[in-house]
User: What shape does this take?
Amino acid sequence: MSLADRSTFKRRLDSLGVTVTEGPPSACGELIDEAAGDPAVGVPLGGGGDDPTDAPVALPDRVETDPTTAELRAAHTGVTDAELGVVAYGSVAIEADRAGTEPVSLFVDRHVVVLREADLVPDMPDAFEWLGPKARDESADVVFATGPSATADMGGLVQGAHGPKEVHVVLLRDDEAADSADPGVTADE
Amino acid sequence: MSSDAAKADRIRELMAAEGDAVAANTRGFNEGRYESTGRLDDYEELKGEARAIKEDAIGRLPELIEQVRESVEADGGTVYVADDAADANRYITELTARERDADRLVKSKSMTSEEIEVNEALEAEGVEVVETDLGEWVLQLADEAPSHIVAPAIHKSREGISELFAERFDLDDPPETAEELTVFARERLGELIEDADVGMTGANFIAADSGTMLLVTSEGNARKSVTATDTHVAVAGVEKLVPTVEDFSPFVELIGRSGTGQDVTSYISTLTPPVDSPIPDFQGDEEPLADGSGDDRDFHLVLIDNGRMAMRDDEELKETLYCIRCSACANACGNFQSVGGHAFGGETYSGGIATGWEAGIEGLDVAAEFNDLCTGCSRCVPACPVGIDIPWINTVVRDRINRGEVDSRQTDWLFEELVPDEEPAGLDLGTRVVGSYETVAKLGSLTAPIANRLADAGPLRALAERVTGIDRRRDLPEFASEPLVDWFERRGGAAVPADEASREAVLYPDTATNYVDIDRGKAAVRALEALGVHVRVPDLSGSGRPPLSQGMVATARASAEDAYAGLAPHVDAGRDVVVIEPSDLAMFRREYEKLLPERSFERLADAGYDVMEYCFGLLENGGDPAALRAPAEGTGPVASGTRVAYHPHCQARTIGVGEHATAVMERLGYDVRVSETECCGMAGSFGYKTDYYELSMDVGEPLREQFGDTDRTVVASGTSCNEQLDALLESTPMHPVELIAPRE
Assistant: This one.
């Protein structure tokens, strides 16, 4: 992803009312801590494969990562990762799993989404090229979420219908060295 | 079809009760569509891609049904193909009420489930059904039907919803703002979802290769309904199948933009069920959420035929199956904007494409109840993301209704000679008079002084209204005593000899120009000759537009063949065909594709030009703008100002010639303000009909708002637009060519 793509993605999120913070993977816990309300539940992030960019990242201790249904119901914030971000639309792809990513992202007021910059794709066709094999081979269930839930059925546009009222994206940059050397600038890929 | 007072009353009531809310919402969606699709660089390519996918999918639907069965079953789900609504309901109630012994089923929005009326079937078996889409829930509480296929409760105001909640839940201090109403609904429904046993969804698309279904939603209720319950029943028409997951992409980009003007809705769920998520146990909620309960999930895909496979075999209705239910055709439609889906709709579906759905699913009788409301203005055609010719489907269904409603007792001897042999004898008189407009106009022109006097005589108009359904509040066209063709011959034909001309053109003497508004014909001759064109105005047959608008397809085809026969030698001689009346040019460029052999259609479509488009082309190719009339020239009301208000004809816009007039007028120095209204509401003959007079005037209301107080010179290209603007603005507009043509 180029710098231009990242800034387009952020602009799209901004127009959707989605807040964004970004930093290196090492800062992930801190960024989540800033973004999450209380109480917070989550699912363990990353570490699912051999991909070095998918290394486990730490969640703050106050985020309950093996919640009961009661804790889910009481939670203000749910923290999950996203598999993919679609630059042109500001969408994030949330994949349902046995750990409960779908309910944790859904039955809460604020959804904090952790997305790696390496997982940004330019446009919808790229997203469906990615989804096709996953759907066929792994029977994946993915929701492309764009902004908070919304309704126009009650006589005006309201953000926060059945799903979250707020969405915050924690964007993890690819290149930790470049980032720490020159904050705010990331080398083009 | 009938001049049924009840129909006019019903439309009047709906306009009063729901018209304002429907108009505000649909016009908002329609503007949103222009903005959102305007942000796409490859909008037309995406539409082409989407269309191709649908053509392919419907073409090999039986194969895709078998493939999706294999895909879903390989994942542990079940597919049931239901022949009809009763079959589907039997399967769903058996599963829900008997096997699952469910007390409550929670539903997300699904038009197909409305079509089969599954709620009633489930409730009869003791299963409580809760609609969780906020709009659908409001309607469920109010016991009303959707008025729009995407935003079902657009006819309800915020105040109305507040009152409804107060009454249903016995609230002293009911929620009032949109936020408060939403919070109230979210909390009530949240509790109902937690205790539900079965979740039901529709599906916008289903990929046969993986069994993946795609749901387009915004509220999150579909996600919750699926996640919170261990049994998921998805109900979808067989036409929702596409070959692969990758095929979803263009539809995802188009559906929200085309419908409500959103680039994409909040949630695009792609589920390959049964889903992996654990099932939250809201009763035993001290247990960990991630308890492996996702393994217990059960999934049933119920694919509905209910007439669709027969539609697939029906060459004319087949395109309906490409519909992705985006609602663009409803939002772009002037009549729909005024009345909504309670008038412009059948048992389930509403808007222009509903004629196809209801004819195929319910039958012609249901389609006949609202099919008249499609005026053929064609503004839905460029809006449809899969390129369905929605006006054509309406025309074909109208033709079938005409043929099915033969009633030999009708006392129609008076107009017998006006009825073409190709049409059934029982056509109602309004249909015949309008459909045979060319004959009427010819007779009117022959006897013009008497015909015009009689036409305006009060008692005769009252009689005519009763017999033909033509509203007496409308001015009838005044026939000219000398048709344009005769005038041209009398003046000695072309003023620019062929050997001195830049081009040669045939000015098509459309019926309205030839017999009624010959001034614009004369102006067109002057404008073209001023630009060095050798002009001919031969006697030619009508294009067939009036009979086509009445669903008289055979008559229209006969006219098309006659008109083509008359024009073909000119086209062979390399002459351009210049048309003043946009609805006739639209015949040449659009509808003749359905009426003439392909080569004939293509030749005439290529040779045909709108008169302003032609002037534009001549100026672009070195024509001298000084030969035309600039605003400073001339005196009197007609040419007194540079300021012009222009309403492009609906069909001219659809065929892409609406803006040439603007460009030419601006080139000559006019300051042009262009209307934003899709259709003036007259739509050919529609606004003349007594049943629809008030609706027609209401559709034109935005034009009155935009142009009502203007001191600008009003111009419009369509004859019927001019009649309507005359009625709306009480000023007589003219064709843009009359503005720019040199004076006589």
